[in-house]
Amino acid sequence: MTGALWATISGLGFGVFQAFNRRAGRAFDAYFSTFVLIAVSALILAAASVLTEDLGQFKGVPLMAYINFGLAGIVHFYLGWTLLTISQNKVGAARTGALSGTSPLFALFISALAFKEFLRLPVLSGIFILVAGVYLVSFENGSAENPGVITWRDSVFGLGTALCFSISPIFIRGGLKDLNSPLLGVTIGMSFSALAYGITLLFRHTQIKQGPLTRDAIVFQLLASFFVGISTWTRWIALDKAPVGVVLALGRLNVPVVILLSPLLVGKAEENVTLRVWLGAAMIVAGSIILNFYG
Predict the structure, then answer these.
(1) Residue 85 in contact with residue 21, Cβ under 8 Å?
(2) Domains of the chain: which residue ranges?
(3) What pLDDT, in 10s, does the model give residues 212-259?
(4) How many CA atoms lie within 13 Å of 152's alpha carbon, on the beta-carbon side?
(5) What's the whole-model pTM score?
(6) Paired residues of 28 in beta bridges
């Protein structure tokens, strides 16, 4: 499959993950929730590596590959997913998906500086259509008392997620040069992040629960972990086959998925999706289709 198709699968999967994580997040502390996501995903990816990969590839792999994959894991999973979970709890899954959708803007500059990837005009038009849709989604979905307003303090967590998601491909690409296996690479990065997060929580003494801990919350947390593990794997495959800007832009397909699923899973009171939100989502899909054809 092409890199754009792998990125599309990843974007859709991340949408399901965010909706499920939003449902589970009402019961779990944001930091403990992120640790569960990382730990379960690491186990899934490790099992997939053992079953499908030639572990002999580790022979002769330079230390720099492990460093690159470890840094990618810290930036993307440790920092990025923590900010994403906090943002979901503050402004909702739909808005968080929209704010994290600004990553193509960061990626345009990062990919040009780091990889000298200067995208063609059709691809650039697709990215800007997509980002315009993100703008429409971002400044809607407010409460009845304060409609369509996101404070800078609340927005910074979603924007921080986008920045982390834009920086991590630099380290991913570096690691794949020495160990050309996206699955093994993401497993190393995820495992390193799980270990680092576990050590952090030992010193942080986090409170596991922030609401009623039910069987429903546990099931949705585990489902979110499964989907994010698979989606991360396919994203790393895409990064090995397509320009960074294209992969990150197609990842924004998560936005319409989140907008559709979140009200069903959480309720319309917490995830108020309006016509403007759907219009923005349609623009995101349109921009992604352009990238599928020209990326």
Answers:
(1) yes
(2) 3-294
(3) 667 887 888 889 888 988 888 888 788 778 887 778 778 778 888 888
(4) 0
(5) 0.77
(6) 209
